[in-house]
Amino acid sequence: xxxxxxxxxxxxxxxxxxxxxxxxxxxxxxxxxxxxxxxxxxxxxxxxxxxxxxxxxxxxxxxxxxxxxxxxxxxxxxxxxxxxxxxxxxxxxxxxxxxxxxxxxxxxxxxxxxxxxxxxxxxxxxxxxxxxxxxxxxxxxxxxxxxxxxxxxxxxxxxxxxxxxxxxxxxxxxxxxxxxxxxxxxxxxxxxxxxxxxxxxxxxxxxxxxxxxxxxxxxxxxxxxxxxxxxxxxxxxxxxxxxxxxxxxxxxxxxxxxxxxxxxxxxxxxxxxxxxxxxxxxxxxxxxxxxxxxxxxxxxxxxxxxxxxxxxxxxxxxxxxxxxxxxxxxxxxxxxxxxxxxxxxxxxxxxxxxxxxx
Length: 358
Known about the structure:
Elements: H1 18-28, H2 43-61, H3 65-139, H4 143-160, H5 164-176, H6 181-194, H7 203-217, H8 224-237, H9 242-258, H10 263-277, H11 281-295, H12 298-306, H13 315-321, H14 331-342, H15 350-357
Helix pairs in contact: 3-4, 3-5, 4-5, 4-6, 5-6, 5-7, 6-7, 6-8, 7-9, 9-10, 9-11
């Protein structure tokens, strides 16, 4: 009898036809006696993985997820509360430090300001004392006059807010210019008031102009307040600065006065030229000195007379104005007559060129 044999079958399983396949195989093997060993590669590994998955599911079923999540939430809440408490304590510490630092800064700033004020006050007091000594040396040894000026300086500095040391320097300048102690006090009052005017920028420059006005035009100290007020009014109404007017008076006041002009005429002419040309005060003042000196020369007067411009008083004009016949009409009147003569003359004409040449 033949011995048994192994029958190896290779099958391709398709899930929907598995049942029909099994029935077919069973009918074909009915007459064969033996043992059929069907092996599926990898079936053991699949069973092992299924068992492992079952064990994992059993372990997971024993864990209470709600309880774990609750513990986690409680832990996080506790940490947040601790962090909030720590942040609040830190904020309180920072706020306390800021308050202490601010208080210290304010106190330190006040102390430093006080120290600086004391230093500045001491410096100003020493400067004032030094100027008072100079004033006594310049004005003589009359202690009562120096004391009166010092009292006036103190009054003006508190009334108008001017620097006492600057007023003391102004007093020395006025005394050096030959003003009496009484005139010095009167002039100081006018100059201290000028510091309140917006068109005067420097009291040192103003006092130089005041001295020039007093010396060149013979103005009294008591009239100085009105003159400075007029200068301020002109500066506010026209395109000219008070400091420029003061500079013009200092630079050309003497020549203008020698030519027969007065202070108001000088201010008027300077303001007109300054507003029209916008030349600097120094240039205009220098031009005035040259023009008025040439306008008085005999050859210039004669040549202009030939052109119909007379810069000297006739007999009738001299009698009318109380002048001397043949006297120069003055700088202001000379400019007015030249302006009248040139007003209707074309700038390109020979007559205009001849007048400019003269």
